[in-house]
Amino acid sequence: MAKQRRIDPLQVLIEVVVITIGIVLAYQLNAMREVEKTEDAELKVLREIKSNLELDLIDLSGNTYGHENAIKLIDSIKNWEDPYEDQLGEMFFRIFRDYLFLPQTSAFETLKSKGVDLISNDSIRIGTQRLYDFYYQVLIKYESNYAANQLFDDFEWVATTYYKSYPITSGEVPVPKIRSAEWLKDDELVVRLDIARFEHWFALSSYRQVKNEIDNLIVTIDKEIKSR
User: Fold this and answer.
1) Which tens digit of pLDDT belongs to each residue from 169-196?
2) What is the pLDDT of residues 65-113, one digit of tens each?
3) At what angle do helices 148-162 and 187-227 cross, to 10 degrees?
4) pLDDT grade, residue 35 (50/70/90)?
5) 124/116 Cα distance (integer angstroms)
6) pLDDT attached to residue 8
7) DSSP state of 164
8) How high is the pLDDT of residue 19?
9) Taking the CB of the first residue and of the last residue of the chain, which one, N or C, has fewer CB atoms within 10 A?
10) What are the beta bridge partners of residue 163?
11) What's the pLDDT at 24?
12) For the chain, how far is it from start to end, CA to CA, in angstroms?
C-alpha cells in the first residue's frame, strides 16, 4: 500500500495567497490601462473641441465685421447726397446680404459617438453641450429661417424698384432708373433699411453672446489639459 502524501496547510495557504495577489495585481494593472486609455481619449477629444472652437471664432469674427460694416453703410446712406455714386449699388448689396455662421462640429459629433460622459470635468461637459445644442442651434435657425430670407427680399425689392439692371457677378456697376436723391428718402426704403439695421444689430448681439460662451469654454478646456 502506497504511502499517502501529507498536505501541508501552510503551503496551501501560501499558494492561495500568491494566486490571489497575482489576480488582484493583474486586475489593477488592467484597470490602470483602461483609465489611461480613457484619459487619452478624453484629452484627444478636448484638444479637437478646442481646435474647432478656435475655427468658429474666426468665422464669427468675419461675420461680425460684415454686420458692423452693414450698419455703418446704412447710417451713411441716410446722409447720402449723390445718387449716382458708383459705390451706392455695392453698398445696398452689402447691406442686404446675409452672413451665415457655419460651426465646426466634427469634434462634438465624435464626443457624442463615444458618449458625453467621456468628459470628466462637469463644467466642460455641460458647457460643451449647452454651446452646441442650444446657442449654436438658436443662432443657426435664426440666420437660416428668418434673417437671410428677409434680407434677400429687401435686396430684391431695392434692385427691381430703383435699378434698371443690377448685375452681381459681372463686376458691372448697377444702373439706376430713378435719378434723384429723393428716392433715398422713400418711406418704404427707409423702413427696410431700419429693419435691416435691426437684423444686423440683433445678429451682432447673438454673436457676442456665443463668442463669450466659446471664450469661456476654451479657457476651461485649456486649464483641464494643462492639469493632466
Assistant:
1) 666 788 888 777 778 888 999 999 999 9
2) 999 999 999 998 888 766 556 678 888 989 998 888 999 999 999 999 9
3) 150
4) low
5) 10
6) 65
7) E
8) 77
9) N
10) 176
11) 73
12) 69
Tally of CB atoms within 10 A around 67? 20
Cα distances (angstroms) measured from residue 133 to each of 105, 108, 218, 225: 11, 10, 17, 23
Q: What is the mean pLDDT of residues 119-131?
A: 95
The H-or-E segment that residue 66 falls in is helix 9-77
Based on the number of CB atoms within 10 Å of its own CB, is 56 exposed (0-12), middle (13-18) or buried (19 or more)?
Answer: buried
Q: Give CA–CA dist 175/162, Å, rounded.
A: 9
CB 63 within 8 A of CB 116: no
Question: Would residue 171 be called left, alpha or beta, if left means φ above 0 and alpha means ψ between -120 and 50 degrees?
Answer: left
Q: What angle do CA 218, 52, 34 make, to 5 degrees?
A: 80
Q: Which residue has the cell 463644467?
A: 123
How many angstroms separate the CA atoms of 94 and 40, rounded?
46
Rounded distance, CA 71 to CA 142, Å?
Answer: 19
pTM above 0.90, yes or no: no
Give the whole-angstrom CA distance, residue 70 versus residue 87: 13
